[in-house]
Amino acid sequence: MTASRENIFEALGDPVRRYILELVANGEQSAGAVVAAVQRFTSISQPGVSQHLKVLRDAGLVRVRAEGTRRVYALDSEGVGEAQSWLAALVDPLAPFAQPLDALATEVARGQRARRAAKPGRSEESTGDARPA
Fold it and tell me: Residue 22 — φ and ψ, nearest 5°?
């Protein structure tokens, strides 16, 4: 399930949630390990940390799996990728068009070669272009 971009950036707006993301970006973390690390960062209760984890999960930034009675959290690359894509579009708004424009340039060059080769009295040897069209 992909969360909305709005939820992703709302979740990233809180420094505790950003800290949790940094923790799980270094590898899977049990809920207890996340709580202990966050409590060293700021005074917050275990239910408070659990609420932050829920917001991150709902936003699609972390995923959770059961390991016996423990819950293990990890970064969800899909949600992080959504945020990265949006930010990259701000930096280079024409990036989505790069590949189609490259393909268009290739087709234009093929068309030009084909027109040159089709002109009467001109051969591939006289154009210096011995590549197939």
Answer: -60, -40
At residue 18, what is the residue type? R
**Summary count for the chain: helices (H), strands (E):** 7, 3
d(CA 73, CA 37): 13
Q: What is the DSSP letter of 27?
A: S
3-class DSSP state for residue 58? helix
CA–CA dist 21, 15 (Å, integer):
10
pLDDT in tens, 59-105: 999 999 999 999 999 999 998 888 888 888 888 777 666 677 677 77
Phi/psi at 72 (5° precision): -115, 130
| Residue 30, token pair as written in the block | 């049990």
